Amino acid sequence: MSTLEAILLAIIQGLTEFLPISSSAHLILPSQLLGWQDQGLGFDVAVHVGTLLAVMLYFRKEVGTMFVAWLETFKSRQVSSFDGRLAWWILFASIPAGLFGYFGNDFIETHFRSALVIAATTIVFGALLGFADIKAKQNVDVEKLGFKGAMIIGFAQAIALIPGTSRSGITMTAGLMLGLSRDNAARFSFLLSIPVIAMAGGYLTLKMLTGEHHIDYSVLGLGSLIAFISAYACIHWFLIIVNKLGMMPFVIYRLLLGAVLLWFVFS
């Protein structure tokens, strides 16, 4: 992998990990459209580390408060605070994605990593996001989401293992359909991404350590840094944009991208 490819792929990972447009789709597309070689497990691990650090740093106050409240639940043997409940909701809601990823990853890698699948999921789930953004009531606080609502979003997150779906897109769609405001749906999606990105990074790291892979640490370090910077900036600006313009700019982008991919597949 060249330095230019590493920089571009890291920027793509950092931007699309948290935008509702599918990071996996955009990382697959360079190889499908430009003939680039697969970036390899080591690079995947590096960009996952970068995006994980970005979301944890951006939401450091919320993460710290939830972690302290979560530890308090063990001491008091009850969940009395909202932050404690939220921490448990996020942990339990991450289980479906973990199980789907562990048992279904190889099948998905074999059968769903294609431009046609990406085109279909980009259009279908983009349209669903647009429908949710227009039709949802958006008047429910995160505190009223409840364990059931959190698990619904968690199961929606598991669907994002299919390339082109978008983890952030499907979780925000589910949040909007459950009545969360755009800002709350986005923030819950970002917090929910923390354990999932950590699990994915851990799984990829284990695969890398148990196999024979050439590791260029300078490229990995550069990729991790670029992914961190772009992801942090993306979170900040996305929350501003979504509160002013809603989800429609991303819906339109997804529909256009899907149309271009269909043209590419059938041309």
Walkthrough of the structure:
The chain is mainly alpha-helical. It has one domain. It has helices at 3-16, 23-34, 40-58, 60-76, 82-93, 95-111, 115-135, 146-159, 167-177, 182-210, 217-245, 248-266. The model has no long low-confidence stretch (mean pLDDT 87). It is a multi-pass membrane protein.
In short:
The protein is mainly α. Helices cover 80% and strands 0% of the residues.
Itemize the secondary structure elements and their pairings.
Elements: H1 3-16, H2 23-34, H3 40-58, H4 60-76, H5 82-93, H6 95-111, H7 115-135, H8 146-159, H9 167-177, H10 182-210, H11 217-245, H12 248-266
Helix pairs in contact: 1-2, 1-3, 1-11, 3-10, 3-11, 4-5, 5-8, 6-8, 7-9, 7-12, 8-9, 9-10, 10-11
What class would the helix/strand composition place it in? mainly alpha
Helix count from the secondary structure assignment: 12
Distance between the termini: 29 Å
How many DSSP E strands? Answer: 0
Query: In sequence order, what are the helices and strands, one letter per element?
Result: HHHHHHHHHHHH
Low-confidence stretches: none
Task: Please name the defining characteristics of this protein.
single chain, 267 residues, mainly alpha
